[in-house]
Specification:
alpha/beta, 19% strand, single chain, 6-stranded mixed β-sheet, Molybdenum Cofactor Biosythetic Enzyme, Chain A, globular
Amino acid sequence: MPAKKTAIRVGVLTVSDRSFRGEREDGSGPVLVEIAQSHGWDVVETLIVPDEIDTLRDTLVMWADSGDMDLILTTGGTGFAPRDVTPEATRMIVDRLAPGLAEAMRYESLKITPHAMLSRSVAGIRGRVLIVNLPGSPKAARENLAVIQPVLGHAIQLLKEDKNAEAGH
């Protein structure tokens, strides 16, 4: 009898000064919500925050430590602009980095655009929560999530120490 699959509980955090101020519609957050729901994941929280390291750090800590989420997807703030601080905020609060996820996203993105070299996205683990930085462009966020999506269920099982994590692996 196959093990019962538990839905991944997801938070989607958009990091954008302009979207936070209402000057530009958030395009990537809703795309990530749609993708998550199409995979049967439970989107438990969405929020738009400005490109402020303290606000971003505090939100990531609050979400990761709440016990309500397994996966936090950030979108935006991963480039070279001076206010792009999502990777720095993420690194400040994770216990362990998960470099393979960011490496895989950049590797596959390079097949599409040389601008992938400008991505500073990171992924890491805080407690039992996986945090992944995705680009701010809806197209790039979709493409990058598609790269890592096949391993996310297993990653979450491992973080939760699910006794079925290695079944059929």
